[in-house]
Amino acid sequence: MRKRSDDGQPVPGPALAGHVIQRYEAQHAWVIDHLLLQGSVTEYQCLGLLLERANTCVPYAAFLRRGIMTSTGNRKQDRGRLAALISRLRSRLWGCGFEIANVWNVGYLLLADPPAYSDRTRGRPEELS
Questions:
Q1: Does residue 127 register a pLDDT over 60?
Q2: Residue 4: what pLDDT?
Q3: DSSP codes of every residue in 89-123
Q4: What is the CA radius of gyration of the chain?
Q5: 128 CB contacts (<8 Å, ≥6 apart)?
């Protein structure tokens, strides 16, 4: 069972190599590598699911099963709403060195590079040693 953070104190989030992740459930916020990411309940839950399954594809159905998205009965409309949510999260995660990739007709994949290999140093191998 995971700890709750109702008292305003951070609780450790999913473990990802090279990253420090904490969550504030009551405030619907994540702190990733000292960067505060606060949003709606839906954004908080969606990011939590992606972080839990980092570097693994999360199928569209998993977002529905978790209650992150509610089905309208129109598959195309549901995926469009999820795509808009992912787009908002994607722009917030750039500062953390994360990227969210769309796996065509399957779901989404959170790519979590360790900080040493993030965009800040990519393409400059002399700084990696």
A1: no
A2: 52
A3: HHHHHGGGTEEEEEETTTEEEEEE--GGGSTTTTT
A4: 15
A5: 116, 117, 121
Residue 59 contacts residue 109 (beta carbons within 8 Å): no
β-pair type (29-32, 57-59):
unpaired
> Nearest CA to 62 among 86, 40, 38?
86
Name the 3-class secondary structure at 75: helix
Please state the pTM of the whole predicted model: 0.77
Helices 41-52 and 75-93: angle between axes, nearest 10 degrees: 80
Do the beta carbons of residue 43 and residue 85 sit within 8 Å? yes
Task: List pLDDT tens digits, range 55-68.
Answer: 999 998 898 887 77
Q: Mean pLDDT over residues 90-112, rounded?
A: 88
